[in-house]
Amino acid sequence: MERFFLLAGILAVALALVEMLLPVAWQIWANREFDRRMSERRGAPEVRRQPEIGAEIPKDGLIGRLIIPRLSLSAIVREGINSATLSLAAGHIPGTALPGARGNTAVAGHRDTLFRGLKDVQPGDIIEFETFNGSLKYRVRSTEVVKPTDIGVLQSGRENELTLVTCFPFYYIGSAPDRFIVKASQFSASPMTPEVWAQVSKQNAEAAPRGNEEAAPARASAPKAVSFTIPVHHSRVLAPGISLGITDTGDGRVNGWMWLMPDRRTVWLRDQNVHDPLVFYNAGKRHEVTITAVAREAASGYLSQ
Q1: Are strands 90-92 and 73-79 parallel, antiparallel or unpaired?
Q2: Which residues contact 150 (CB under 8 A, 6 or more apart)?
Q3: Domains of the chain listed by start with CATH number
Q4: Strands 126-131 and 134-146
Q5: HEC profile for the chain?
Q6: b/e string for 146-166 if b means 16 or more Cβ within 10 A?
Q7: pLDDT tens, per residue, the chain with 305 residues
Q8: What pTM does this model have?
Q9: Quick one: 90 exposed, middle or buried, by C-beta within 10 A (0-12, 13-18, 19+)?
Q10: In whole angstroms, what is the distance from residue 136 CA to residue 266 CA?
Q11: Residues 148/179, Cβ–Cβ less than 8 Å
């Protein structure tokens, strides 16, 4: 009997560890797969449109990635909200708008895994929804607690919005009786039109230094690095597991953030000077981000790996 109960205890602990570690391992793999597919699609001449409400989406199909920088929250989103999907990822609620389509996009996640950070969400927080068709930005406007039967929170309003759903209370033992709702309004989207991109490129060209020898290291390093031009209030995946967002370019300096996977952490850019490398480590490897030109509505630079 002692050996039986010892073996049963070991198996129970092993199953609990697998249940805890499997979503983490799957998220790491899914983020790499998402970044790989994003890299393949980057540079495609056409702009793909996200399907409208009611479009046929494969079961468990990959929708995109949700990021809340202030909370260091990142979650791959798949189609559907069955137990198999939510055990590994956040789930897009069928029947609601897909990201980029008009209406209310609703995403559900478990309170004890991917959406645990929502307990600290505040009005004004920025939420980014990266998809294969572009990146969408939302600003949190409210939170509320409702009953599971209150499906009115999924109805569409006059504006494009994002609704996050998880169980409540966050530390409740057993099946939680309520639902915690986060409402956010969309305020920007990419990709932008060719005309806007041309304007951004012109602004960066005008802001680039001319006849300045300090720019030489940046030009020399550019062929060996990943170059970028990112408008304000937009972000871009620079390399697998490394995303850069620009929030402000006032006074010739750059403010923004980088989201790093698989480390699952945020590196902040605060008043970053031109040609002043920002050194950081991700997955044990050294990287540098250098801003080479700053315009009123965009910033350019390169990532050294």
Answers
A1: parallel
A2: 179
A3: 12-189 (2.40.260.10), 194-304 (no CATH)
A4: antiparallel
A5: CHHHHHHHHHHHHHHHHHHHHHHHHHHHHHHHHHHHHHHHHCCCCCCCCCCCCCCCCCCCCEEEEEEEHHHCEEEEEEECCCHHHHCCCEEECCCCCCCCCCCEEEEECCCCCCCHHHHHCCCCCEEEEEECCEEEEEEEEEEEEECCCCHHHHCCCCCCEEEEEEEECCCCCCCCCEEEEEEEEEEEECCCCHHHHHHHHHHHHHHCCCCCHHHHHHHHHHHHCEEEEEECCEEEEEECCEEEEEEECHHHCEEEEEEECCCCEEEEEEEECCCCCEEEEECCEEEEEEEEEECCCEEEEEEEC
A6: eeeeeeeebebeeebbbbbbb
A7: 888 888 888 887 876 666 667 777 888 888 888 888 777 765 544 444 444 433 446 665 889 999 999 998 999 999 999 988 998 999 999 888 888 888 899 999 999 889 999 999 999 999 999 988 788 999 999 999 999 989 889 988 778 899 999 999 999 988 899 999 999 999 876 544 444 344 434 444 443 444 443 333 333 333 357 888 888 877 788 888 888 888 888 777 888 888 887 777 888 888 888 888 888 888 888 888 988 888 877 888 889 87
A8: 0.58
A9: buried
A10: 19
A11: yes
Short-list 104, 86, 87, CA closest to 95: 104
Among residues 241, 246, 272, 242, the alpha carbon closest in space to that of 257 is found at 246
Tokens 């937009």: give the residue: 234
Q: Which amino acid is at 178?
A: D
- Looking at this protein, which amino acid is placed at residue 208? A
* Residue found by looking up tokens 């639902």 in the block: 179
Q: Are 231 and 245 in contact (CB under 8 A)?
A: no
